[in-house]
Amino acid sequence: MKTAIVTDSTAYIPTELLDKWNIHMIPLNVIFGNEVYREEVDIHWQQFYEEVKTKDLPTTSQPPIGQFVELFERLAAEGCDAVISIHLSSGISGTYQGSVTAGTMVEGIKVYSFDSEISCMVQGFYALEAAEWASRGMDPQRIIARLEELKSTAHAYFMVDDLSHLQRGGRLSGAAALIGSLLQVKPLLHFVDKAIVPFEKIRTRKKAMKRIADLLGEDAMGGGRYQAVVIHANREEEALGWKKELEALYPNVDFTIGYFGAVIGTHLGEGAMGMGWMKK
Question: Is it true that domain 155-279 has CATH number 2.60.120.200?
Answer without folding.
Answer: no
